[in-house]
Amino acid sequence: MYTRIKNELTIQFGFPAKNNDIVWRLLNEQFNNSVMNGGFIAAGLYLLHMGTFLESEQKNEQALRFYLQTCYLDLTMGCPISGPPYTIKNVNEQYIRPAVFDYIIRMKKILPITRKDCGRLYSEAGKLIFEQMENIGLECTPSQSWPIIEQIFSERKIFE
Hints:
By secondary structure, this protein is mainly alpha-helical. It has one domain. It has 7 helices and no strands. It is globular, with a radius of gyration of 16 Å.
């Protein structure tokens, strides 16, 4: 896969592809394949990898967006959500990967982000996931699920 992607990108760019570009394309392809095949647990894992990859490049706000997408994906696809109204009672928090909370806490220490900022980023980032997955049964929008995530963040003292 690495060699195939390297060759494709080299043709696309017109010069030898950099390792970071190859790794990013690989992660993105794996994410898309997981989504298309209903592998939402794997898809969330690729989102986390993409976030940590961006974090390693010091693209922290972009990394945070991927961590928030992971929260949204886990919350909305990891368990059934009935609604509306969408409430914390419809969700079992255990479906959200524990590591994602640690990553968000780390980003909060680096970025001057408020609860309101986080809600905006969550809605923007989640919208991409929602649009990609709406045709496969995703019904809960990021705006509808934000109060649930916000409650979980409050309980975990991520935002007080």
